[in-house]
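User: Teach me something about this protein's shape.
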Amino acid sequence: MSDAVGVEATMSQIYVHHEVSCAPRHWSEVAEQIQKSSHFRNSDGQAFLYGIWRSQIGLPRDVLTMISVWPDMRTASFRSDNIFSGLKFIKSHTTKFLTPTLRPKSSEPPVKQGKMPFAGLKPQKRITTNFYSCARRLGRLLKAALTLK
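Assistant: First, the predicted structure itself:
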């Protein structure tokens, strides 16, 4: 057991991050092709699609981010790049093996996607007060300038 509560240290799956650059306006077709790929519909259980997301922050709109799960490093090395061979509308892709920092409790995909980077941040009261004070002052100045005309 690791120091993290509820996380098994013996988990052996390898997680691979894929960044897929698609032809303009074809990200949806590429995502469907990947989901239906024979690599993830296999009976040997060698690979699983953990998740696939369209870029939202910081990447071009036609880039997909994908994570696949493999049973071991050898299988992941040999087969993870082959996922994209023969698929249409893919301009390029990169593959990166993820280094675990804290493993999930299981290899089950997430139930729902969440956008949580700023959920816990609250603006500081001093900054908020200064902003509203400046906005009121600017409003008075604009009103005075408009009445002079």
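Now, about its shape. Residues 1-10 have pLDDT under 50 and may be disordered. The CA atoms of residues 96 and 109 lie 19 Å apart. If you'd like, I can walk through any region in more detail.
User: That's plenty for now, thanks!
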